[in-house]
TrEMBL record:
Domain of life: Bacteria
Organism lineage: Bacteria, Pseudomonadati, Pseudomonadota, Gammaproteobacteria, Cellvibrionales
One family name in Pfam for this protein: Cupin_2
Gene3D superfamilies: Jelly Rolls (2.60.120.10)
Annotated InterPro entries: Cupin_2, RmlC-like_jellyroll, RmlC_Cupin_sf
SUPFAM superfamilies associated with the record: RmlC-like cupins
Domain Cupin type-2: 61-128
Protein name (Swiss-Prot/TrEMBL): Cupin domain-containing protein
C-alpha cells in the first residue's frame, strides 16, 4: 500500500480539525490553559481516580494579610488558581515551599499535610477546583494535637 495515500487523509483531517476546533474559530474569545499535568507541584504522579460518581467542587478562599490556613490535606485531586495576591504553600517539616502570585495556577498535593499562608499586606483570594467522588470530603483538617504523618 502506498504510504503517501495514507498521509493525505491524515493531513486533511488535521487541517479541518484545527480549522473547526482551533482558536481561530472562537469569535475572538481566547483560551489559555493555566495548568495541566499528571503530576503535583512537587513532581509526584497524581493518584489514580477511584471508580464511582464523580463530583466537582469549586471553592473560593480568602486569606487575610499575615494569616495562614490550618494544616490540612486533600484526599481528592485538586487545582488552585491565585485570583488575587501572593500565596505560599508550606509542607510542614520540609524546606521546600511554593509561592505563586496573582494569575498563576498549580496542581495541589494529594494526601499530604500542608497549608497556605499570606505573607503579603493585602488579602489573597484563591479558587480551588476539587475532583472527587460524591459524598467524599475535599479537605481534612489536622488536629493540632496529632503528629504529622
Amino acid at each position: 500500500m502506498n504510504h503517501r495515500l495514507l498521509f493525505l487523509p491524515v493531513l486533511v483531517i488535521t487541517f479541518f480539525s484545527t480549522a473547526l476546533f482551533g482558536q481561530e474559530k472562537t469569535n475572538d474569545v481566547s483560551f489559555e490553559t493555566l495548568v495541566s499535568s499528571t503530576k503535583d507541584w512537587e513532581g509526584h504522579v497524581l493518584p489514580k481516580m477511584k471508580p464511582g460518581q464523580p463530583e466537582l467542587t469549586v471553592v473560593s478562599v480568602t486569606i487575610p494579610a499575615g494569616k495562614q490556613m490550618p494544616v490540612h490535606k486533600h484526599p481528592v485531586l485538586n487545582g488552585v488558581y491565585v485570583a488575587e495576591g501572593t500565596l505560599t504553600i508550606v509542607l510542614p517539616g520540609q524546606k521546600e515551599t511554593l509561592t505563586l502570585g496573582e494569575g498563576k495556577a498549580f496542581i495541589e498535593v494529594t494526601d499530604k499535610w500542608h497549608y497556605g499562608r499570606n505573607d503579603g499586606e493585602t488579602p489573597v483570594t484563591i479558587i480551588l477546583f476539587y475532583s472527587g467522588l460524591e459524598g467524599q470530603p475535599t479537605t481534612i483538617y489536622k488536629n493540632p494535637d496529632d503528629a504529622l504523618n
